[in-house]
Amino acid sequence: MILGILNFIKELKFRNESLFYFGLFCFSLSILFIVLTKLTTTQVHGVNAWFKPFKFAISIGSFALTMAWYCHYLSNFNPTPFNWTVIILFGFELIYITFQASKGQLSHFNFDTPRYAILYSLMGLAAVLVTLYTAYIGFLFFTQSFPNLPSHYIWAIRLGILIFVVFSFEGALMSSQMSHSVGAINDNSNWWIIGWSKTVGDLRVSHFIGMHALQLLPFLSFYIFKNTKATVIISLFYAVLASTTLVQALQGKPIFQNTEITKKQE
User: Fold this and answer.
1) Residue 47: phi, psi to the nearest 5?
2) Residue 239 is part of which domain span?
3) Rounded to 5 degrees, what are φ and ψ at 229?
């Protein structure tokens, strides 16, 4: 088990050293951020300010390592421009989120000053550019052939990237209404780390589910399903799940109802 993990890490570094070290850097920051949640009491919208940079560090690090693995399969593809796009743009996003957390202020939906408005807009632009570049990589996976790889695995990567891109752009929906909640303003619960609302619709649920198709679908296909038809069917069900949680959030309904609140309302 340990030897397998070490070999995987060695292979990942070989495939894309730049994104490998960037991913490790993000994970290292996430450890620092989770420690700070225990050492500080600063809150933003009712939750410890350091949970947000922690979640983004994990998410960005996972994305970097995942794409480092996938891009190695592509022929006639130069990963260097993509590497620096991810490192610079997502690095900027993580730095800004961390800076705002240190001040106990919002990073997202913050137009309190012209400077904050510009920085938030730039952060959104950074996410859009990385997503578009990822969509291009997805296009390459659909148009290239991979004779040395299992068909089910390639289809999982294709569909995983497709679902990731679609639900990455859901971030624009949150920006358009200046809130991740439907029925309240940026409502959070006391759920550790995820913080999804227990009282109103939360657009972050489908955003999270859809984006992590990038890792989950290829993993399930390669290690469990090992069949193209099963992979496509599961991917469709996964897309339906993400879409259903989006519709539910838009209706102002939480993913899981707070039973205590429900009893009070009754």
Assistant:
1) -125, 155
2) 151-258
3) -60, -45
- The residues, any chain, with a CB within 8 Å of residue 99's CB and separated by 6 or more, are 107
Count CB-CB contacts under 10 A for residue 142: 13
Which residues 6+ apart lie within 8 Å of 77 measured at CB?
Answer: 71, 137, 140
**Residue 174 near residue 180 (C-beta atoms within 8 A):** yes
- Cβ–Cβ under 8 Å, residues 161 and 141: yes
* Residue from 35, 69, 39 nearest 54 by CA: 35
d(CA 188, CA 193): 10
In the predicted model, what is the mean pLDDT of residues 25-53? 94
Query: Within 13 A of 198's CA, how many CA atoms are on the CB side?
Result: 12
C-alpha dist (Å) from residue 180 to 172, 188, 206, 233: 10, 9, 11, 30
Q: Which of 97, 123, 144 is the last residue of a domain?
A: 144
Domain boundary among 144, 172, 201: 144
Upper half-sphere CA count for residue 255 (Cβ side, 13 Å) = 22
Do 89 and 129 contact (CB within 8 A), yes or no? yes
Q: Please write the tens of the pLDDT for every residue from 168-208.
A: 999 999 998 888 888 888 877 766 677 888 889 999 999 99
Among 39, 42, 66, 62, which residue's Cα sits nearest to residue 52? 42
pTM for the whole structure: 0.94
